[in-house]
Amino acid sequence: MFTHSAGAHAAGHSLTTKLRAIAASGLDAVEIFQDDLDAFAKSPEFQICNTRDALTPPDSPTSRRASDSSSQTSSSAPLTKAGLRGEAKGQSSTSEMAIFNAHGPCTPAELAQEVAAAAYIGDLCASLGLQVLNLQPLRDVEGWSSAEDQAAADARVRSRFPIMRALGTDLLLCCSNNQPSPRTTGDAHRIAQDLARMADEAKTFSETIGQDSRPLRIAYEGLSWGAHHDTWQGAWQCVELANRDNVGLVLDSFNTLGREFADPCCADGVSAHPTWRESLARIPTVPAEKIFLVQIGDARRVPAPLEPSPNAKEPRPSRMIWSRSHRLFPGEIAKGAFLPTIEFMHAVVVQAGYRGPWSVEVFNDSLSDEASNVPSHHANRAKVGLEWLFAQVLATCTQA
Predict the structure, then answer these.
(1) Around 345, how many Cα atoms within 13 Å sit in the side-chain half-sphere?
(2) 58 falls in which pLDDT band (50, 70, 90)?
């Protein structure tokens, strides 16, 4: 489950509270929302943890304190664990040595604090029995027209490698660029080069720190409002051209069906020219091992059709507006869910042979409710929705 889908941090729902709620629901894996990690790293809660000299949660099976070690300080231990202190070994130019985080330039202290926070969260997840599936999303990383912009994007990608190691995940989710031409290009060969370069740097980082044999992986997702690639087919073309073992595809039910079945600008919410059946029929052409993650979410129709956008009055794409407020958990038909998610998952699991995690990713206005039961309520809805969807997909096998 995507951690934001258990409640918005801006509404007071902390990452640690959400992780505990997700674990209590019976779910066993999470996608860490970058914004949640940012908020936790800067929170009074984490400052108290640091003040108490805690490197890991007290209920973690690997619980330890900075004062327990004479060889490392509280600031250096998480950095060493994440491989940050050895990162420069795989870098060759002065520009690559600049300090970045997920959003742009930052201070060394800010990055060190984020690494320490990630290590704390990684150990908390371990203590709760939660696998960290990935860190996501990293936005607008590919296809920049200027070399300077692309170099900055590459630096943002590299900055995630020690964070991923600290969290205990090997997967970084990058979504298709939302910045339009002429600042970016949608040329698949160019984007493939960018993805391949990121993958090679991820592999080099893994080999440099030598913590395990798994290279870090890059998962690429086509957003339904992407500036150039807004379908899974477009994203897959780039992944296939990248031709790297550690670059793969994200298949997202909302972003697929929200582009090829639905349209929030139409009166009934359904596209006038749906292509979803043809799209799902092509999913089995993707090798199962190249599907790195499947994300699941349904949606309800907007109360009134949206104006096509971006436009002069609204810079946000209409599908982005719809996505941010109207997604639902699987099976919530009584709440208005109308996307063919069962058919989507049948194509992915039964026909394409995907055997990886099913992760729920939902954005909805209800996540901004400040009530204390929001995390547990939404985590339980996710668990119920996944169980419902699993049963429905299983039924399609017996009907075939």
Answers:
(1) 30
(2) low
